[in-house]
Design a protein that fits this description.
The termini are far apart. The protein has 94 residues and is mostly helical. It has a domain at 50-90. The protein is elongated, with a radius of gyration of 18 Å. The protein contains four helices and no strands.
Length: 94
Amino acid sequence: MGIQFSPAPEAYARTLVEVPEEPDLSPLVGAMTDLMRRCIVTNPPHLFDRMTLIIGAAGMDPEIAKMFRQYGSFAYHIPHELIDKISTTLGLPA
């Protein structure tokens, strides 16, 4: 087993980039790939969609979890209206 040491980074900057539509994600990933290859961005990006953020919030907010209770099976489809309502409540991007 080996351990690789490297100097601490000078600084980290947390950045949030929102794309309005899913097809807009592809150019963003391409740009991030280029920046990472040139070592301009050195920490790996994390990509999340609205449902990921909502499910994370549902684990901490019992009211949001309660809204999803009836859809707790693969046999049910979560309505887009409910996703939009919760997104607005949480202040998530459209």
